[in-house]
């Protein structure tokens, strides 16, 4: 259930590149999360392209000399391990640079931040979707769901009462 947000300078992508990138991101992220790509899973794998004027983005406090991208991918805790995260970051970077289509200057161009959202704080249409519930709803293999359940139980969310 990835939520992908890409902040990019205006004009970095033409309309065909945007269409291809938006189409590719959801499938790539679902695959790295180990979620079967179905109509149901694709319906909750969202991607946003957020254009910003190039003058409102800097690299090192200086105006841009190339297009740069900030990608934030939010996923539920328990669906990713480091190998999956590394693979997702690599593939997203490749997809963004392919859509960009320019050589760049050799300086860093794509920052990808993967946010793992704790179980119990992800909601869809007003309802909380904990990790295990989501995994079962997405028909993840039972053994993997058991490992998720054990991991969540071992590392519960820190919940401090206010009163």
Give the topology, please.
Elements: E1 3-9, H1 15-33, H2 39-43, E2 46-52, E3 58-59, E4 62-63, E5 69-76, H3 82-100, E6 110-117, E7 123-124, E8 127-128, H4 131-137, H5 142-154
Parallel strand pairs: 1-2, 5-6
Antiparallel strand pairs: 1-5, 3-4, 7-8
Describe this structure in words.
The chain is α/β, with parallel strands linked by helices. It has a single domain, classed as Macrophage Migration Inhibitory Factor (2-Layer Sandwich). It contains 5 helices and 8 strands; from the N terminus they run βααββββαβββαα.
In short:
With 163 residues, the chain is of the alpha/beta class. It has helices spanning 15-33, 39-43, 82-100, 131-137, 142-154; strands spanning 3-9, 46-52, 58-59, 62-63, 69-76, 110-117, 123-124, 127-128.
Look at the helices and sheets and give the structural class.
Answer: alpha/beta
Radius of gyration: 18 Å
What do the pLDDT scores average to? Answer: 93
What is the number of strand segments? 8
Strand order within the widest beta sheet: 2-1-5-6
Percent of residues in beta strands: 15-25%
As for the CATH topology, it is Macrophage Migration Inhibitory Factor
Number of helices: 5
Number of domains: 1
Any idea of the CATH class?
Alpha Beta
Distance N to C terminus: 34 Å
The biggest sheet amounts to:
4 strands, mixed
Percent of residues in helices comes to: 25-40%
Principal-axis shape equals: globular
Order of helical and strand elements: EHHEEEEHEEEHH
Low-confidence stretches: none
CATH superfamily assignment? Macrophage Migration Inhibitory Factor
CATH architecture descriptor text: 2-Layer Sandwich
């Amino acid at each position: 259930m990835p939520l992908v947000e890409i902040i990019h300078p205006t004009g970095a992508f033409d309309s065909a590149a945007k269409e291809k990138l938006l189409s590719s991101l959801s499938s790539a992220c679902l695959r790295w999360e180990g979620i079967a790509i179905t109509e149901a899973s694709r319906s909750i794998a969202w991607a946003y392209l957020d254009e910003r004027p190039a003058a409102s983005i800097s690299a090192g406090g200086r105006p841009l000399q190339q297009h740069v991208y900030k990608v934030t991918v939010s996923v539920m805790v328990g669906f990713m391990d480091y190998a999956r995260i590394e693979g997702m970051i690599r593939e997203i970077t490749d997809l963004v640079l392919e859509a960009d289509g320019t050589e760049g200057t050799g300086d860093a161009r794509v920052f990808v931040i993967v946010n793992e959202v704790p179980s119990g704080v992800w909601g869809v249409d007003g309802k909380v979707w904990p990790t295990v519930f989501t995994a079962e709803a997405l028909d993840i293999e039972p053994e993997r769901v058991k490992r998720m359940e054990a991991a969540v139980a071992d590392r519960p969310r820190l919940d401090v009462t206010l009163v």
